[in-house]
Amino acid sequence: MSVLTSALAEPAAQHPALNYRTSWIGNTWGYAKQRWMQIDVQAIAVAPDGDIYTNALWDEGGGEIGHYRDGQLLGYGGRSHGWGMLGGDAIAINDRYVFTAQIVESIGNALAAQKNLPPQGTRWYGVARRSRADFTQGVPFAGQVHWPDSTLAFRLIAQSSDHDDEAIRGLAADNRTLFVSNLRDNRIEAFDADSMQPASQFPAREPGRLAIAPDGSLWIIERSRTDGARRIVHHARNGTRLGALTLPAGSVPVDLTFDANGRLLVADNGPRQQVLIFSASRDAGAQVGAAPLTRHDNRDVSMQLTATLGEAGGLYAGRRGAPGPLRFNGLTGVGVDRVGNVVVAMNGTGLRGDRGDGNRGPQNGDGAVLESYTPDGALRFSLQGLLFVDAAQFVDGESPSLPSVYSGSKRFTLDLSRPTGHEWSYAGYTVDRFRYPYDPFLHLKQGQRGTPIVRDIDGRRLLYTLDMESSYLRIYRFEKTSETAIPAGFFAPEHIDGAWPPGQPSQGAWIWRDTAGKGRFASIDFDQPVAHDSPRVTTWWVDTHGDVWQGTLSQGIRRFPRQGFDNSGNPVYRYSAMQRFAVPAPLTRITRVIYNPTDDTMFLAGSTAARPFNEHNWNSASSTLARYDHWLKGSPVLRYTIDLPDSGPPDTQAINGIAEAGDYLFAAETMTGIVRVYDRDTGRDVGRLAPGPEVGAASGMIDESMPITAHRLASGEYLVLVEEDWHGKVLMYRFTPPVRASSTVFASPSSSLH
């Protein structure tokens, strides 16, 4: 291999300040005032005055338990994050207290003894009592779990192996009594709301959400583990069964509440995606934001279905995947205040693990939406925290007036003339779990669609997504009549354990293609190598021609040229067409691949003999970034190498993601989210893009292997988009580079840039 050396870089400290500003995509707030919308909402409780309390198992920034008023965040409750503490799946309030279901995980036997936590292999489920006046503070009671240096007042309800999930999925309270759904023991437990001492209990099969009626009786969602068998049962306060609702066919009730007029509101996360409203009157009332109502008979004649809130079919009505008012998607909660304003919570999928099959992918949902509607169905506000373990890509060739940005499961439009943080609008949800239930997103345990690579090829738009650890490459095609990304292909470097996907080979690597055009998996859809050929894959890339590139641990670089499209519009890849490339000097291990066919340039990151792979930074780009010219059309030429930060504790530094656009390379630091900018031609270090005051000068750690993309606009401005999981968004740097002077390339004994 011939080598063309380049000019040495200037020290970073000598770089002038870059001209840029920071914005963001995917969250109502950017964290400028320590505000952000949490990434998941599993449960809500709405006070008569309209205050909203939320609960979720996890939010990266610690915002599991939230408090909102009139579309504004008042704060997060805390004590639900770290040292084994989690949020939960239920919440209830009365005039004095906020009751939150919470889970406590084991963090080892040593700390279990020291801090009074679950022993190894055990998980606790319980209820914390907090003050309505300040829900960051617990209100103590006799029998609570004692934790040193914590004000959390927590009653242990049940425990299980950490392989099981017996979380409390229902709470209801009035000023006398707290009712708890004990899923593990199949019963409802009642506690005195003031003393938190047990009062009574009665059996209920797999109890989930429950609500207290105006007459004090209870309505309970039972059989909560199975979508198809769920039912809503009416019980007296002592447990006597009084009746049951007959829900519309296909309904999946996930939450319920009563309004001030005694109407029962049920959140239906089935294909209807509506709030069903039951009244004591047999007279069918006017629907809110819905089509004409079909009358239903009911075994519990005290309640009749009289109205619905929301467009029938939700986000999947009309143009499937297009969000908007009353177009619900993944309902998890419903509440109502004293004047009839209805609050709905959504997360794109529904309640966490609600199928109970142990193989559900999205455990934290797919982005939170919290909306409020007036009694006549007008939108009051919509709060959005849409992105988690996600990146974003600006799409080439879009209309310059309203271009698109894709994440793994969403489409946004951009109006760059709008103020900071308001440039983006949520325009499409690309998952359709009703039409395409075999979508890998719904089954793989990573729980996210994956970071996006969008390619427009021969008039077809394709979405490739990559999980955080570069395990698999997923391929989707689009249809023009909807926002849906249809499962089209899948690269698996090894057999996937479990029932999904059906029909996969019994062992080894495979490529799946949707030959029937229906997003299904059948045995005839899989292609495998002739011999066992399953090297560990360390990175993926898809170039603008649609060719798939792999970096592997033992076989260097592999290329799968796209073999056209089949009759369904799926790109075709075959092992028989695969090409191999040896790891080029000075690299000894490949961690990132970026190939640009426009000028036949290859950018490779990895480790060298001089700077070997650092296991502490296991998901990073490693120590060296190299540019090679004439990769396919001649003998590859090493133009330069760049030394990347790659150190372990106590001063951990690393690069997780690398992007190329226009005249620059962009490299995202793992620990800080700061982006290093390099000259593409020479490798010279140009400067830094750091989170600005618009986002609280803060970023979380960069987790993904492909967390950053970049695009040069016709104006010369660059959009650099970077994963920011800590507060549920993607950072958007708007970078205007200086006027470029002509660069000179010098011959020198070394091609390394430090």
UniProtKB/TrEMBL annotation:
Protein name: Uncharacterized protein
Source organism of this protein record: Paraburkholderia acidicola
InterPro entries: 6-blade_b-propeller_TolB-like
Taxonomic superkingdom: Bacteria
